[in-house]
Amino acid sequence: MNLHDMTKLKTANETEQVNEYIAKLDPAIAEVVERLRKIILSVDKQIGEQLKWNSPAFYYTGDMKPFNPKEYKRDIVVMNLHRGNVLLVFPTGAKVVDTTGLLEGNYTDGRRIVNIKDLDDAKLKEKSLIKVLKQWLELVE
User: Fold this and answer.
1) CA torsion angle for 90, 95, 98, 103 (degrees, to 10)?
2) Which of 50, 62, 94, 103 could bond to 110 as cystine, CB 3.0-4.6 Å?
3) Angle CA(90)–CA(10)–CA(35) in degrees, nearest 5?
4) Which residues contact 70 (CB under 8 A, 6 or more apart)?
C-alpha cells in the first residue's frame, strides 16, 4: 500500500469515527454539529476531520513547515459541546485578523472561540465562519 492509499484509508476511518460520534448525540445538537461540519469541510479540500479531545475536530491536511506538535499549528477548529451549545474552539485563532467579529475571547494561549446556540445561529454565522476559515488557511506556513 502506498502513502496516498494509506492517507485515504486514515481519512475514511477518521470520518467514520466522526459519523459514529454524531450518531450518538441528541438529534437537535447533532443537526447543528452536522451543519457546522459540512460548512467547515466545504471551505477547502485540504481540511480533514477526526476525533480529538473527545470531539469532532478539523485540521489542515496539506504540507507545512516542521513545527513543535504542542503548537497545534495543524489544528483549525475543535467542537466543544457545552450545555446544549456548540463552542467552536480555534486553538490558534488569535493569529487570524477577524474582521467579521465572529471570534470571541482573548486567551493567553492563542485560542479564540465561537459560540453557536442552535441551528439558526449556525446559519446566521455561516458566511463569517467561512471567511474566518479561509483567513486561517491563508496563514498556513
Assistant:
1) 30
2) 94
3) 45
4) none
Centre a 10 Å sphere on the Cβ of residue 85 and count the other Cβ atoms it contains: 14
Q: What is the pLDDT along the chain (141 residues), one digit of tens a residue?
A: 544 444 455 666 888 999 999 999 999 999 999 999 999 999 999 999 999 989 999 999 887 777 677 766 789 999 999 778 999 999 999 999 999 999 999 899 999 999 999 999 999 999 999 999 999 999 887
Chain-centroid distance, C-alpha 118: 17
d(CA 137, CA 131): 10
Grid coordinates representing 107 are 486567551
Q: Comparing C-alpha atoms, which of 25, 37, 45 is closest to residue 79?
A: 37
